[in-house]
Amino acid sequence: MASWAAGLARSAYLPMSRDDLLAFLRDAAGRLVAGVAAGAPDDGAAGVGAALVDADLIAPEALPATVEALGGRLAPVLAAAGLPEDAAPSLLAAVAGGYTARLRARILDEQEMMRRAEQDARGRIAQALSATEARFHAIFANAAIGIGIADLKGRIVDANQAFASMLGYTIEEFCRLRVEDFVYPDDAADTWRMYEEIITGERDHARVEKRYRHRDGHFVWTELTASLIRDAAGEPQFTVAMVEDITHRRELQQRLSHQATHDPLTGLPNRTLFQERLAAAFARAGARIGVCYLDLDRFKAVNDRLGHDVGDRMLVSVAARLDACVSRHGHLVARMGGDEFVVLAVDPRDGELDELAGTVLEVLAEPIDVDGHRLRTSASIGVVECPVAGTSPAEVLKSADVTLYWAKADGRNRWARFDPERNARDMTRYALSATLLPGLENDEFVVEYQQIVGLRDGRPRGIEALVRWEHPTFGRLSPDRFIDLAEESGAIVPLGRRVLAEACERVASWNAEHPDDELFVSVNLAVRQAQEGGLVEDVAHILDRTGLPPRRLQLELTESALLGPPGRPVAAISALAELGVRIAVDDFGTGYSHLSYLPLLPLHTIKLARELVEGIRTPHSGAESIVDSMVGLAHSLGMAVTAEGVETCAQRARLRAAGCDTAQGWLYGRAVPWPTLVAQLSG
């Protein structure tokens, strides 16, 4: 038995362990003994062979090894049963027969099982295929979106009712069409390129928005998804198109887009669309752009007097006129907001913007009739033209806006071109205006002094205080660079107070040390200062604090500062004169002078403008006669006369001959710091 088990253990197929094999052989021997004892030895032997198959001992070595092992144990069994020894071969043959019969039956059973399994599988596959096909046909026929199938030659093989109805056809009519029947000249270029890539197998699907022409002629916008169907070998076979009607959605998007990019009142493009077009122009290499930025003159008065309804209708009329004269030239006109409009010209020809600005002024000059009101309007226009290289949309708009206000400042109802030099000056003015108050805080303003000399004896009679600005960026600035800015910002009030206080303190100190000189100090007073409520109190306080007598202070004012807005003398001037302060008219003799008011003003001195004094140097200019007349007029009114800008001895001689009292100018010395002036006076 051990050798039998060892032999099977070497078999390629071993369904059980060695011990289990030995137990099986013992059981088989027992069956043979039981069969012989029962008188049916062949049946027992056949059962042993069948048991081999049932135990999966079906390897080629199993049956011979089993017969050999059993043969060695049959002799005592046969002898005990009274059977001859030659009965052993028949028993072993019965074992082989039982083995063969059971193995054949097993094979047949497995084949039948395989056949039945195959039949079941085929049935299930067929059933699944049938269900899938039914679902596909249900989806194809009843889908809400259009579905069409075409072969690679463009023939429409099938289509559902949704696709056919979408374009006004029956399914039969639709299937007589071809794919190329839906090719239009204005289709997006990528649409048919992607279709070619699909039918050649380069791509499997594509998604685009496409227009289809309806049978009645109108267009239907769709979202098209095209897919490729391949055969079992992977080769292109059909294309499937799925289309969804998005016409209403697209129309809604277009309405929303129009509302987002157009002005609801005038219908013109709005700021958003203008900026998009301007950015597109800047994206073109080498392009030139032109912008006319315009603002209606005095439009606020229409709204204030006649109401916003009338103002709105006026804007609608203006917009229509602008659109008519601008759009026909291919330019864009947009409403930027309020009463501001802008025209954009891309690559304008030479001189076109100037012509366009002039045309706009002409069309706006015609009256506008609104609700029985005949309205007239005009516009101020800023014109900018430049290459896109080296600038930006924001810079162009800023320049146009600046230039528009130049046109307004120059008198309205006109157009102005952007001037880089003027813009640089404006930027400097802005920078100066922004740094005025910080300059005061940082003590950047200094006071210099110029002598006022008696023409008869040449002795100093007074000193004029002149302010200078030591700007950290722009250097030393004279008053004409910043005084008007100081007036606009209000900084002139603290600046003037500081200059007045220092000048009074300096001269009071000098007079205390040199009582025989009795110098007066002359300080300029701006219009804003003259109209300031606390002027009289400020002057009185400074005089009291410095100890300077009021008669030693002279305040110089221009005629506009002396006369209030209605043309009446400023009350503060009279109060200062009553205080004992000397009042002088500065730059007298330039422009239009109100001579009739001279007797009404509490004046002490008239200062002849340097333009008149300069005229003395030119023979036959008439300046000498004017100077003679003014000196005589002033003296007749009890006023002294000071000449400014005296630079030559000839001027001095002529002024002395005219009876002029005092003079100042470079002939006597420039404006200098106080220590330098002290040295001059002491010398």
Helix content: 40-55%
- Alpha-carbon distance between the termini? 152 Å
Radius of gyration: 58 Å
Name the structural class: alpha/beta
What is the number of strand segments? 21
Mean pLDDT: 84
Number of helices: 26
- Categorize the overall geometry: elongated
Tell me the β content. Answer: 15-25%
Order of strands, main sheet, comes to 13-14-16-17-18-19-20-21
Major β-sheet, in short?
8 strands, mixed, barrel
Uncertain regions spanning at least 5 consecutive residues: none
Structural summary, described in words:
The protein is elongated. The chain has 683 residues and is an alpha/beta fold. It contains 26 helices and 21 strands. The strands form 4 sheets. An 8-stranded mixed beta barrel has the order 13-14-16-17-18-19-20-21, surrounded by 4 helices. Helix content is 50%, strand content 20%. The model has no long low-confidence stretch (mean pLDDT 84).
Give the topology.
Elements: H1 2-9, H2 18-37, H3 41-54, H4 62-81, H5 88-142, E1 146-151, E2 156-159, H6 161-166, H7 171-174, H8 189-199, E3 205-213, E4 219-230, E5 236-245, H9 247-261, H10 271-282, E6 288-296, H11 299-306, H12 308-326, E7 332-337, E8 340-346, H13 352-365, E9 368-370, E10 373-375, E11 379-387, H14 393-409, E12 414-417, H15 420-434, H16 436-441, E13 445-454, E14 460-471, E15 475-477, H17 483-489, H18 492-513, E16 520-524, H19 527-530, H20 535-546, E17 553-557, H21 559-562, H22 571-579, E18 582-588, E19 605-608, H23 610-615, H24 623-636, E20 640-643, H25 649-658, E21 662-663, H26 674-682
Parallel strand pairs: 11-12, 14-16, 16-17, 17-18, 18-19, 19-20, 20-21
Antiparallel strand pairs: 1-2, 1-5, 3-4, 4-5, 6-8, 6-11, 7-8, 9-10, 13-14, 13-21, 14-15
